[in-house]
Amino acid sequence: MLLVEKRILIKVSNMYYVDHLKQSEIAKRMGVDRTTISKYLKRAQENGIVRIIVESNSYEDVEAALEKRFFLREAYVVPSNYDLQAVKTNMARAGLTLLRRIVADGQVVGMAWGTSIQELTRQARYEKLPRIDADFIPVDGGPENIDSDYHVNTLCYELARAFGARSHYIYAPAITRTPEIRDAILQDGNYEKVSAFWKRLDIAIVGIGAPVKSSNLVWAGDFGREAIDSLMRTGAVGEICSIFYDINGKPVKTDFSERTIAVPLKTLSETPYCIGMAASREKVPAILGALRGRLINVLITDEKTAKILLNE
Length: 312
Description:
This protein has 14 helices and nine strands. By secondary structure, the chain is of the alpha/beta class. It has a seven-stranded parallel β-sheet with strand order 1-9-8-5-2-3-4, with helices on both faces. Strands 6-7 form a two-stranded antiparallel ribbon. Helix 2 crosses helix 3, helix 4 crosses helix 14 and helix 5 crosses helix 6.
């Protein structure tokens, strides 16, 4: 390559990549046609004058390993942090990035409740999200003893509003006081409407709970801490939508199985996108069970949790 040619290639490359001029503008300035400028830019790459570097996500190897090991549709790994709230904020932003890409007109989007889901809706207030013609629906009953900010109906409304979509509500607790109350609710028109949407789910967003004394169900007051010990004896390692399952993702029989109002785990496993959001060492068995049982096909977690899962 002659020196004059190299000088021209450098000059054209600077105008295009540094000064951000259009190829047609460069062509006019250089006295050639646009096709020639395109050839110059290609030749500049071939000769190493221009090197295009695509920034690599430092977690892409971990994400790929999770996807391969657990047959996931997608894994999204965020940085770990000693502050769990910071991790939840990063997971929420990751969730919104994913939703922005996959949500579309005509879809049904299901939402559970919990602190990770609440952070997702909070972050949605600060994001510019596409407006879609879709329906957002709760996938389990709402806990009765927590602030309205964490209630599934509130979370559903907030995320739907961020997307300019419709929200629907469920007028039932996650766990009823008696099986008879649950049976009556299942006959109600509101439940029939909500459960009809469950059969059409395109996307579900759920948290993954663990039967520990800091679990959402204990925090929400659905049952006392002593119930945790009895849960452990059933072989339960995790919970999604107030339904408990074992290390292989199989539902386990509990004292409140006949009192739970939620979408069936089988329905979630058949949903095109079932997004599970969870991170922390204590939740590893719960996440592992959900993955083994194919209850979720998208996982959003942090680096430390991801690496523990891969070493299990």
